[in-house]
Amino acid sequence: MPVVGLTSTAPRRAVLALLAGRSRPLTAQEVHAGLTSTLRHIGLTTVYRAVHSLADAGCCTPSALTANAPAATVVRHHTSA
């Protein structure tokens, strides 16, 4: 996670890895459900905080599916050769 000013934490890495493996935006609840099988002590609030900090750093893009279920997807950087 080479983002200046953003500390690489286990929850952020886990959220980013999960989002990177999906082709569609996931809600925080979906991310939480996907991570609880691998990270026993991650709370939904931690997932929300991780998504918000990753979005602020430009690592993922938040999108609003509904007012009650915001979603996020990883920013995919395309390089041209």
Compose a concise summary of this entry.
With 81 residues, the chain is α+β, with helices and mostly antiparallel strands.
Give a structural overview.
The chain has about 80 residues and is α+β, with helices and mostly antiparallel strands. The protein has one domain: Winged helix-like DNA-binding domain superfamily/Winged helix DNA-binding domain (Arc Repressor Mutant, subunit A, Orthogonal Bundle). The protein has helices at about 10-20, 30-35, 45-55, and strands at about 25, 60-65, 70-75. A 3-stranded antiparallel β-sheet has the order 1-3-2. Helix 1 (about 10-20) packs across helix 2 (about 30-35) and helix 2 (about 30-35) crosses helix 3. The chain is globular and about 30 Å long. The chain starts with 9 loop residues before the first helix and ends in a 7-residue tail after the last strand. Residues about 75-80 have low confidence and may be disordered.
